């Protein structure tokens, strides 16, 4: 599919939370791009349902080229969970393109994570204890089910290296606080009002110190990651959080 600056957020970044999305940055005047295109198309076609292929014309979408550092083409980037997970530059032989796609094809653990139910997520962690995406997904299920202590146990191995996991754990710990802003933030999240939740968490950052302040900050960062870098709430509250901290 052809993707533009207007559709990139939904078709690439959001979609990549469900399935890997390969983005081919190209231009009509680029001869190597025209040579690479059928190779990439064939590789994606063989993995239909497991990988999505998107095309970005850099002449028509210069903002995307600048945002992702596209200095020469063809330039191919693979997105997972809203982030660039792998990439290559220049014309590549079919074997190299196949190897690139093979690294993206979902494993059995990926399929269990995609299933999304508690049993599947726990099985994913049995197969791969380092599957942070499974920990985060299971943590969310347990928190929604009111099983905060179990969620903390699941999330604990990932909190030091993954801000999203740390953010979820922070939300659980905030449930133990008697501060009105902490309880108001959690209530806002429960009813799906992230703007109000971020506003209350920001107040908590501004009015507290020490561990509680760090916990509120981590909770905000976790919400930013869930929303995505380009979401208006992320952009607005990230600036306000930076001012509050520094």
Structural commentary:
The structure is a single chain. The protein is an alpha+beta fold and 246 residues long. 59% of the residues lie in helices and 10% in strands. It is built from 13 helices and four strands. The chain has a four-stranded mixed β-sheet, with helices on both faces. A hairpin with a 2-residue loop joins β3 and β4. The longest helix is centred in the C-terminal third of the chain and has 18 residues, at 210-227. The radius of gyration is 20 Å and the shape is globular. The mean pLDDT is 92.
Features:
single chain; 246 residues; alpha+beta; Glutaredoxin; 3 domains; four-stranded mixed β-sheet; 13 helices; 10% strand; globular
Task: Give the helices and strands, then pairings.
Blueprint: H1 8-14, E1 21-26, H2 31-46, E2 52-57, H3 62-67, E3 75-80, E4 83-89, H4 94-102, H5 108-115, H6 118-127, H7 132-144, H8 148-155, H9 163-174, H10 180-190, H11 194-207, H12 210-227, H13 232-245
Parallel strand pairs: 1-2
Antiparallel strand pairs: 1-3, 3-4
Write a brief caption for the model.
With 246 residues, the chain is of the alpha+beta class. The protein has helices at 8-14, 31-46, 62-67, 94-102, 108-115, 118-127, 132-144, 148-155, 163-174, 180-190, 194-207, 210-227, 232-245, and strands at 21-26, 52-57, 75-80, 83-89. It folds into three domains: 8-102, Glutaredoxin, CATH 3.40.30.10; 107-158, no CATH class; 163-246, no CATH class.
